[in-house]
Design a protein that fits this description.
Elements (H helix, E strand, L loop, with lengths): L4 H21 L8 H26 L1 H32 L3 H32 L3 H18 L11 H9 L5 E2 L5 E4 L2 E4 L1 H25 L5 H13 L1 H8 L9 H17 L8 H22 L17 E2 L2 H6 L15 H10 L1
Parallel strand pairs: 1-4
Antiparallel strand pairs: 2-3
Length: 352
């Protein structure tokens, strides 16, 4: 697959444009409802499908099928990521109107980290073909482990990352709007929102360790691996607001994800022995995910939406008006030469 340099720049420009549109649409903190989340989810899924059609027309059916297989794998594995985010937000009691900003920055970090992982993985495969067998063994072991521990829950309050963060970063227990850092009594301190952002980023890095080898099982083309990841990740925020209150209904989804990891790992391990066409691999992944989702919804029919429950990671609260007034911006503005006179200083003081 010959991908010209301008195609990379075009994709990156499209991703940046979509992120800018999303940031502009959510520039004000507000609670994102189900209808809005559904609308944005449709937009992001249609964007991913449209790009897949472009790949199919530009580079042929095989490349298009590989893209869609990778996109489906990444989108499916991302659902588990979404549920972990819901537990983190519940554990920190993050107000819903602040969650989008955390996830927006989390997605930016995810794109960067996954880009680095993909570049490293592609380099390893190109120079050491035997690394594919290492990836295959890792995926099979991870799938079996997920299968055996599918009923276990994440506990952010016990996170080693959170302990290290609290040990080295001074943190207040109050949310100061959407701010991650504040200056209080001349000292820069973190708000709980920064701790949440760090946990979200670390969580995505952990999930990327599973998902990146999984997509290399269906394609070794870095362009397809990156774009499938990018378009799957771009819709994660909308997917979170759409599914977070329904995670209790996806009872068998983790079972399906575990089987997907075992399947792609086995496919990778048998690469030199048995060739499995991309359409077959795509059909198997789609069938596993569809079966797990349908079985989950049937088993939990009649259950409505409700917020995720999680053990608290601390006693977090909203900052009082007095605390908000005492918080100072991180960057202090310097006085200009025209405001150095006594009259200007008195005028500035009166405005305060």
């Amino acid at each position: 697959m010959d991908v010209p340099l301008y195609a990379w720049f075009a994709v990156l420009a499209a991703i940046i444009a979509m992120l800018a549109i999303d940031l502009f649409a959510h520039r004000r903190a507000h609670v994102i409802g189900v209808r809005e989340a559904l609308g944005w989810s449709i937009v992001w899924v249609l964007s991913g499908i449209t790009f897949g059609i472009v790949v199919w027309n530009a580079w042929g059916a095989e490349s298009g099928q590989q893209y869609f297989a990778g996109y489906l794998i990444e989108k499916s594995l991302a659902v588990d990521n979404v549920f972990v985010w819901a537990i983190i937000f519940a554990s920190f009691a993050v107000p819903r109107e602040f969650q989008h900003r955390v996830l927006f920055l989390g997605v930016l970090g995810a794109l960067v980290f996954r880009g680095l992982f993909i570049a490293a993985g592609a380099t390893l495969i190109q120079n050491f073909s035997w690394i594919l067998y290492v990836f295959a063994a890792f995926l099979i072991i991870t799938g079996i482990r997920m299968l055996l521990t599918r009923d276990e829950h994440v506990h952010p309050e016990r996170s080693r990352t959170l302990r290290l963060f609290r040990r080295f970063v001074p943190m207040t227990d109050a949310f100061h709007g959407q701010r991650f850092l504040i200056r209080r009594a001349g000292v820069v301190v973190a708000t709980p929102l920064l701790a949440v952002l760090v946990l979200v980023e670390v969580t995505d890095v952990i999930f990327a360790v599973d998902s990146i080898p999984a997509i290399f099982a269906v394609t070794s083309e870095p362009f397809l691996v990156f774009t499938a990841n990018a378009f799957a990740i771009l819709g994660l925020r909308a997917m979170y607001f759409l599914l977070a209150d329904l995670m209790h209904r996806f009872r068998y989804l983790k079972l399906g994800l575990a089987l997907v990891l075992v399947w792609v790992g086995a496919k990778m391990a048998l690469l030199d022995v048995l060739y499995i066409p991309t359409p077959v691999s795509l059909a198997v992944v789609a069938a596993i995910i569809a079966a797990s989702v349908i079985a989950s919804l049937v088993a939990t029919r009649g259950q409505g939406r409700h917020e995720v429950e999680a053990a608290p990671a601390g006693a977090f609260r909203m900052a009082t008006p007095e605390e908000l007034a005492e918080a100072r911006p991180l960057v202090r503005r310097r006085q200009t030469s025209r405001s150095e006179g006594p009259e200007s200083l008195r005028g500035t003081g009166s405005r305060r």
